[in-house]
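Researcher: Please predict.
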Amino acid sequence: MFELICKHNFGVQATIMEKSKADPKVRPSNHRFYQYGWYYHFRFGMAKHVIPNQEILVTAASVGTKKGQAVFTDAVNGE
């Protein structure tokens, strides 16, 4: 598997968010916490690595329910 992966040029960006270490204003709900985390990851972490018209794949860890996942996915999509 690693031999196959090594044949391709790709990058990985990851942000690990720990709610207990977040600013108190973003801790009231999971919605607020992930909204801030994803915003800052894409605005400041990803922006310098993405070339215009480049395709990216975004994958998020489980957030509990399909409804919760939809809320966070919509935030990333700007809906």
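Model: Helices lie at 2-6, 30-46, 66-77.
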